[in-house]
Amino acid sequence: MTRTKRHRIVFFDLRRIGMPVGAVTSILHRITGILLAAGVPWAVYLLDLSLGSSQSYLRAVALLDHWAVRGAAILMAWALAHHAFAGVRHLLADIDVGSRLQAARRSAWLVNLGAVAVTILVARVLL
Amino acid sequence: MRHALSGLNAWLVQRLSAVYSLLFIVYLSLHFLLEPPGSYEQWQQWMRQPLVSTASLIFFGALSLHMWVGLRDVVLDYVHSPGLRVCLLASVAIGLAAMAAWTARILLG
Amino acid sequence: MRLSIFRFDPDRDRKPYMQDYELVPEPSERMLLDVLVRLKTVDDSLTFRRSCREGVCGSDAMNINGRNGLACITPVSGLKEPVELRPLPSFPVIRDLVVDMSQFFKQYHSIRPYLINDEPEPDKERVQSPEERAQLDGLYECILCACCTSQCPSSWWNPEKFVGPAGLLQAYRFIVDSRDRAGAQRLDDLNDPFRLFRCRTIMNCTEVCPRGLSPSRAIEKIRLMMVKASL
After folding, report:
1. Digits of tens for pLDDT over chain B (109 positions)?
2. What is the four-CA torsion angle of A88, A94, A97, A100, rounded to 10 degrees?
3. What is the pTM of this model?
4. Which end of chain C is more exposed for a tag (fewer CB within 10 A), N or C?
5. Does B32 touch chain A (CB under 8 A)?
6. Domain A22-126 has CATH 3.30.70.270
7. Which of C7, C17, C62 is nearest to C40 (CA)?
8. Which of A17, A90, A112 should one mutate to test binding to chain C, selecting the residue with the greatest count of C CBs within 10 A?
9. Which value does ipTM take for this structure?
10. A20·C204 Cβ contact <8 A
């Protein structure tokens, strides 16, 4: 046992292991989920400001005008779009819609590109 | 109650909260696109409608549960030291409970 | 044809390295395994498993240009060169392309891959209708080559706790078998945070299965059966 432990060699180089499109969709689903989780407290803070008083409402509006906040909002728009599209893809797969390989590959592309398309639209509105 | 919030139940909670959150976000986005609030009074009036504030409250509840299952999955996948795992899960749980309390105070206050 | 092959001899090497080979395949050497067998006549230290050489035994599973597959049914034509061959990802390497499958088989055995039926045995056999038998199509064909499990991220992170796609495909195979009586226990056994629910439906398993099977769909169906059973 110690011998095998000492010599425990494993091939595990993520750069050399192929990532099919579904795997890309999936890891982005996770990354966008973490991004959104990090963004939620800020959104709640904005909600708090916006409902507090008319002064704090104006502060929230002014904050949303700041370029950095707008940049973050665009990032969040991408994260939300990807997370939601990938989520719908999973929900459909749960009830056996599009869970065969060919359909799943196509829907994975659709999710990845659709989220980018939504982000471009949001960016054009916000910038 | 071996499976209180693990296995199948966690998975069901994740799915159901996802569906509700998605519908709510679509509804909210449509509202902002079609009749964006122009002033504090307008915005506050809209948010203080019983239907909207109840729906928002449920949304933040669903969101907290959804975040719990998702972040728990991230921790279970990548963090293997039992001590660190428990610490992280506990801080996620405390953070989410605090956030839920905060949103409840905003929406009911 | 150029190949770059993962080499590691535990008695001689401290670290694995990639060794380059070059040869001209004979017209008869159409599959990757044919080329490997010839390479072994040139360099007999090159180590890999193979047996049936026709995609039935599952011995020669390896990572071919980043993707798990069986060398014996991978045509040489169409492979990007140099062809990079590595052992199955995340499995302990014994030597060169040979990996230790203990963990994989442990997970397979954990789902009790045999019929459980305490009812009195009939005189001849437990009969299945053609429809009942058809339920097993797309499941029983699994040859346990481990291509799927070794390409599955959920198995990478929790190999001891997550059953993995191959084991779960077989779990489903016994759950839907009309002769089996342990369906409810089988479902219950999989209902914890790890054994089945680490699956995130990434579908790498279905992508690489050399038999064209779909462990990800089997897992989805088990989940739906659990939902139905819990109602």
Report:
1. 344 567 999 999 999 999 999 999 999 999 999 999 889 999 999 999 999 999 999 999 999 999 999 999 999 999 999 999 999 999 999 999 999 999 999 999 7
2. 110
3. 0.94
4. C
5. no
6. no
7. C7
8. A17
9. 0.92
10. yes
